[in-house]
Amino acid sequence: MAQVSMTVNGKAASGEVEGRTLLSSFLRDQLKLTGTHVGCDTSQCGACVVHVDGVAVKSCTMLAAEADGAEVATIEGQANADGSLNVIQQAFQDHHGLQCGFCTPGMVMSAAALLKDNPKPSETEVREYLEGNICRCTGYHNIIKAIMAASGQDVGAIAAE
Amino acid sequence: MPKDGGIGASSKRREDVRFLTGVGNYTDDIDIHGQAHVFFLRSDVAHGTLNAVDTSAAEAMPGVVKVFTGADFEGVGSIPCGWQVTDKHGEVMQEPAHPVLAQGKVRHVGEPIAAVVAETLEQARDAAETINVDIAELPAVVDMKAALADGAPKVHDDLTSNLCYDWGFVEENKDAVNKAFEEAAHVTSLELVNNRLVANPMEPRVAVGDYSRGTDEHTLFTTSQNPHVIRLLMGAFVLGIPEHKLRVVAPDVGGGFGTKIFHYQEEAFVTFAAKACNRPVKWTSSRTEAFMSDAHGRDHVTKIELALDTDNNFTALRTDTHANMGAYLSTFAPSVPTWLHGTLMAGNYKTPLIYVNVKAVFTNTVPVDAYRGAGRPEATFQLERVVDKAARELGVDPIALRRQNFITEFPYATPVAVEYDTGDYHATMDKLEEMIDLSGFEARRKASEANGKLRGVGVNCYIEACGIAPSNLVGQLGARAGLYESATVRVNATGGLVVMTGSHSHGQGHETSFAQVVAEMIGIDENMVEIVHGDTSKVPMGMGTYGSRSIAVGGSAMVRATEKIINKAKKIASHLLEASESDIELKDGAFSVAGTDKSVAWGDVTLAAYVPHNYPLEDIEPGLEETAFYDPSNFTYPSGAYACEVEVDPDTGKVTIESFAAADDFGNIINPMIVTGQVHGGLAQGIGQALLENCAYDDNGQLLSGSYMDYAMPRADDLPMFDVDHSCQTPCTHNPLGVKGCGEAGAIGSPPAVVNAVVDALRSAGKDVTHIDMPLSPDRVWAAMQ
């Protein structure tokens, strides 16, 4: 067992982990931050995406020990300071970009990483960026709309619905 | 003008806030103090005799609480099947036992053999690796026709063969159908495969069992679409626990698509083990386990024949299908290729004579059951493919051939035993043609060809039967359950309402759309209505959510309960207003006396119900809570017309969806935004089936597509923006909301459009291609062109 310490959503967090403990397990099981979801075991689905030192990471593919000393951001820390939805979260609600909600935390975290690097992505760029985030409910249509709307673009032009 | 609330408004979903901020409550988020974890040791062979399971080493491993094998479940019931099909000879289907843990034999890869309960999941998994399983491997049967051959290995030794049933429908029509084929001017036939799929909701299944020794009460938290059904099946048939001692909770559930309807061994195991170990027991499926333990979908092999007269009228239809059941009968498996498939073979057409034969077959594969659409996609695919092929053979326009044969008068009794109440198939086709700019297609094709690509367009119709289902009818057809729905409406003293519904929301947004209905009926703000679902201790009864039934059946129960509330509230209001009850009107949340300015607010009436100082106590009881059960008198029949345009790269066979348009008739609509989203999701799954997804086994019954590395899920860059319209509305005539249901349409209607389009593209290059089996992967398309 090893001691790990990191900053999660701006707060200090630490715990004892086995060498094999994944960051996703540490967040969910020890810190009880259950908003980060695990939807597969092959690093394909992206439900577990968090930010580590500002970079989008599939937390099922990183050991908790590797995140020692890092700044970690999860879905629980994304809302505005007053508790209201941030721009991306609000766009997902406004454009019905989620149904069952299981892939949603990873989608929101990936969207945030995309818009940080590419503030006005095209539809094609959004689709290509989300290649590592699987959604089974929405057919992606409204997720694409939500992310483009969150970037300040007029989404009325990209689809009839 | 769009409404800002109530029926017809695109109200934003209230459930989104918790999902977007990471505070949803999915089953895997539930940890109970003192809980242990279970890991299932699953069979890695498809078929074998289980000689011995030695768990002694595992029992000595660190953290192990207890190790279970099939022997621990010898006194426990079999996982039950909820539907008994009677075959064409009047014999009931063959129905094998389905143990919680394998007993004597293993029959598919993934079947649980032993279960290790330990302090942590890692300890349970480590201990499971030390279990010594002695299996004498037997030849496996995977291919359905091989499974029915003389001398084929039997999946179940105590059954006479691998044939579950041989169903003919309608058997009395068979001779007339055959005669019509003999007299036909033209016959088009087609052999096709409806590929095996895995539903793959993004949340894997999870089950947590808890037991209170003090009260002898069991609790199961589970990822289910229908917790009351699980309570009945598991309590009554497997573990012998009465309903009043068994609580089943399905909290936030991350998608279902059918595969979370069924009662699974893991649910029974954790409930059983929680008592045996005297501590909570939790199981969380990995995705790999999901591929080999969640019920699969589809997997039909079909020959379909269409007979036409000299004027191109459809005169008869004949189909012969083999339907894979897998190794055991999952909860509703027998109903899918029969009553959810054969009854839809008329489609949108007035074909007078139809005969459907279905042979359901046991194989050494994971059980197959309902997946989004369940039987109706299989019916639609074969029918719309054969109609398209007939149009090509006859040299007529495929849309015109369809229109010529459309049913136009309603109600319409089909030759396959159902009665369509309403529909307007020309209207949805008109709308579709308006959406897709067919006149510009040739120019688009030329532009594609200039880029070295082939372009095709495919069109099809669909009809489905939703709002499942009239209980007395399905009882006659073999269902071992009623298919009503219930709702309880509880009005609180200060006027807020809690609606407890037996429907279950696992992505459909019921918490929002159901509240819109009740708010509209009373004339109050939607936020005064709370929807409660998914807990047998809170909701009196429920049959759950599947078959696009929630708003049509669950919503109707809610309407009936709300009507009872309004009737009682009017009695209270008439007392308060000193007026005749018949003169009381409810509008915008206030009761008034017709023709006067006397009124009393909703909140004053509800307060009077609980503080009955000035109240007609001699006539009615205090309180304001009502329950209704709604049993539908018919199915509902959503319908529509879909079109797909594709580009095919002739060098690689890669298909790209250029556009997809869907014109649906769902009857009345509660929340257009949610309905559109449901269609989008269905389209993605249907296009996924057509182009990407395939659950594959090798000849030994090894699962080849056991992870997202091998099973091609549709991803964001595989799909286009969709063009969706549901302005054609012929309201259902037999439920109070006039609704039909929208959850499955996209998955039902889209696969034939894609395949029709690809065939059209290849033929434009002079290729004599009439059919390619799904999924239309680049290698299959390329091979078809050579």
In words, what does this structure look like?
- The complex is a heterodimer of chains A (161) and B (786).
- With 161 residues, chain A is of the alpha+beta class.
- In chain A, 29% of the residues lie in helices and 16% in strands.
- Chain A has five helices and five strands; from the N terminus they run ββαβββαααα.
- Chain A has a five-stranded mixed beta sheet with strand order 2-1-5-3-4, sandwiched between helices.
- In chain A, α2 (87-94) packs across α5 (141-150).
- Chain A is elongated and about 55 Å long.
- A seven-stranded mixed beta sheet of chain B has the order 3-5-1-13-10-11-12.
- Chains A and B meet through α2, α3, α4 and α5 of A and α1, α17 and β30 of B.
Outline:
The complex is a heterodimer of chains A (161) and B (786). Chain A has 161 residues and is α+β, with helices and mostly antiparallel strands.
Radius of gyration of chain B: 27 Å
Question: If you consult CATH, what is the topology of the largest domain in chain A?
Answer: Ubiquitin-like (UB roll)
Number of helices of chain B: 19
Question: What is the CATH superfamily classification of the largest domain in chain A?
Answer: Beta-grasp domain
Portion in strands of chain B: 15-25%
Count of individual domains of chain A: 2
What does the average pLDDT of chain B come to?
97
**Order of strands in the sheet with the most strands of chain B?**
3-5-1-13-10-11-12
Number of strands of chain B: 30
> What oligomeric state best describes the polypeptide chains here?
heterodimer
Shape descriptor of chain A: elongated
CATH class type of the largest domain in chain B: Alpha Beta
Proper CATH architecture of the largest domain in chain B: 2-Layer Sandwich
Tell me the series of helices and strands of chain A, N- to C-terminal.
EEHEEEHHHH
Unreliable spans of chain A? none
Q: Tell me the span between the first and last alpha carbons of chain A.
A: 53 Å
